[in-house]
Design brief:
mainly alpha; 257 residues
């Protein structure tokens, strides 16, 4: 719910920005963010919990992180599959979110078109609850179909570079990402012990964040060497292999959804 509200107001602000950018330079628009950030800081400071936070020494911190990876060995097949799934999904989506806007701006030099693309990609996040209901009905086979759809869209970017098609891809990928994200959370709820929900969810989010960093770096090098289409093609192949893998291991029979 909170993410939906935040994304809605982000979209409103982005649309307002499209109008204001005609009259103000980009650095003044960024400066306008400062007052809202200060208000948010005051609110967080007002309602913060007063507690002593102990910062672990560096060796102990590293030891705790390594312990997390050891715990993953004891997870069941579904949770381990979700780690791989979230890593590569984050890789692929971060590449689209990073490079498509750059392509648009290089082609037309119009910042408004880039903002519109961001708004279109965010729209699906407003309907997470509906997608969650659909996942409840369709079950885990949504993962295979979602990955397959993702692969087709990535592959299409190798051949189609028009702005309208890029908008369509951004929107559909946003739907797929939101659907798979909701489904991933539901699988964690179904397979993790209640007292470990937060811990397991945190580990999966950490893996996803690593994927978001690795994706643009690795694929960026590939695109720089062999062209932008090569990056989309490799990611499409990876998504296709993941879709086949999820179909083969038959997650649906494992989780009973």
């Amino acid at each position: 719910y909170f993410d939906t509200v935040a994304n809605f107001w982000w979209m409103v602000t982005a649309i307002v920005g499209i109008v204001l950018i005609k009259y103000f330079s980009i650095h003044w628009l960024l400066f306008l963010i400062t007052p809202t950030s200060l208000v948010a800081l005051v609110i967080l400071w007002r309602f913060r919990k007063k507690e002593n936070i102990e910062i672990a020494p560096a060796p102990l911190f590293v030891k705790k992180k390594l312990k997390i990876f050891k715990e993953i060995k004891d997870w069941n097949l579904t949770l381990k599959s979700l780690i791989v799934f979230n890593f590569f999904i984050a890789c692929a989506y971060s590449v689209i979110a990073f490079f498509l806007p750059i392509e648009v701006y290089k082609e037309d030099g119009n910042l408004s078109l880039v903002i519109i693309m961001g708004v279109v990609a965010t729209i699906p996040t407003l309907f997470g609850w509906m997608l969650g209901k659909w996942f409840d009905i369709k079950g885990s086979k949504v993962f295979s179909y979602g990955l397959l759809g993702f692969a087709v869209l990535l592959f299409s970017l190798v051949f189609f570079h028009g702005y309208v098609w890029q908008l369509i891809v951004s929107f559909i990928v946003g739907i797929i990402l939101e659907l798979l994200s909701v489904g991933s959370n539901e699988l964690v709820t179904a397979h993790a012990n209640p007292e470990h929900f937060g811990r397991i969810g945190g580990v999966i989010r950490s893996i996803s964040n690593i994927g978001s960093i690795v994706g643009p770096l690795a694929v960026g090098v590939l695109m720089d060497s062999y062209g932008i289409g090569s990056g989309y093609f490799v990611l499409a192949v990876i998504m296709l292999l993941l879709a086949i893998s999820f179909k083969i291991i038959k997650i649906n029979s494992l989780i009973g959804i």
